[in-house]
Amino acid sequence: MMNFVLLFGVFWVVIFIHELGHALAYRRMGVPIKMLAVGWPPKTRFACLEIRSAMLRRFFGPEFVFVLSPLIFIGTVDIDATKEEVLSDDKRALIYGAGVIANILLWMLLMSCVAIAAITSGNAEGVRVHLILIDLEKCDPWFMLVALSVVAALLLYYARFICQWIFPIIGIMMFAFVCQRLTVVLGDIPLFLSGGFTVMATDIGRAAETGRFFFLMATWSLAIGLINLLPLFLLDGGHIGLLHLRRWTSGRVLSKIEGFYRRLGTRLVYLLLLLSIAPDVYRVYHIFT
User: Fold this and answer.
1) Residue 67 pairs with which residues in a beta bridge?
2) Which of 2, 194, 201, 206 is in the most buried spot, having the most CB atoms within 10 Å?
3) What is the pTM of this model?
4) Which residues are bridge partners to 129 per DSSP?
5) Chain centre distance of CA 201
């Protein structure tokens, strides 16, 4: 049970940081924020925690409310859409990509903590760096601290360019990677059923016992950020993709393509969510049959 508490806690924190990135970007562009919700459904009547603070309203907007809902899959920031529509494409791309940047910065912060822990403990062998697709077993902690600081500075300085042009390219690459992995996993049913949130909860419990909790949390933060770059509607990559779509097309063609893009993206996102919980549903079914 404690493992699931840790799992939900990590996801809530990571998704909160993601949505906070969007909220800060909206505030930077002068768009008032009505609600920041972590979890689903993002409605105050379903919330297990609701905060209406005068200090937060002075910072984010006069109607601001923070909502924490029980399910961990989704987060959202509710704003006045009419204020967003007047923004330029590069500003809107920055807003949509700000959540991913926040996840990357959280990954860098946690990996810096891992590096500092390695330095203070006198770990001469270095630390492991995991970049989803790249796994470096040994990295000098001092070099890692300097590299992370430089990359973080460049990420923030070139944030608009990265969100508008680099993130869509990474999103397409991630889409190809996810399709390839799904082909492999769905072709091997025992492998597919060996995953799920139960396994993730076991992993995080083991990580907490072995002192690798920050490392695992950093990896999940980076993974959630990259998943949000998938060019699917409802995800940040899908919103950035719509900006480019509107730039290249117009009129009735745009309306038809955008409608198809929204419907397809929504269905694929829901399919990914169903696939993520399918192994756990199968385990529960086996227990009661």
Assistant:
1) 37, 50
2) 201
3) 0.92
4) 136
5) 18
At 162, which amino acid appears?
Answer: I
Cα–chain-centroid distance for residue 139?
25
Q: Nearest Cα to 19, choosing from 111, 109, 107, 95?
A: 95
State which amino acid sits at residue 2.
Answer: M
For 160-203, the pLDDT digits (tens) are 999 999 999 999 999 998 898 888 878 877 777 777 888 888 98
- Rounded Cα distance between 284 and 3, Å, is 17
Domain boundaries along the sequence of the chain: 89-287
**How many angstroms separate the CA atoms of 78 and 37, rounded?**
8
Provide the CA 86 distance to its chain's centre, in angstroms: 26
Phi then psi for residue 75, to 5 deg, are -135, 160
Categorise residue 64: left if φ over 0, alpha if ψ from -120 to 50, beta otherwise. Answer: beta
Compute the distance between CA of residue 274 and CA of residue 269 in angstroms, rounded to an integer: 9
Cis check: omega of the bond before 168, within 30 degrees of 0: no
pLDDT tens-digit series, residues 142-162: 888 999 999 999 999 999 999
Tokens 């049970």 label which residue? 1
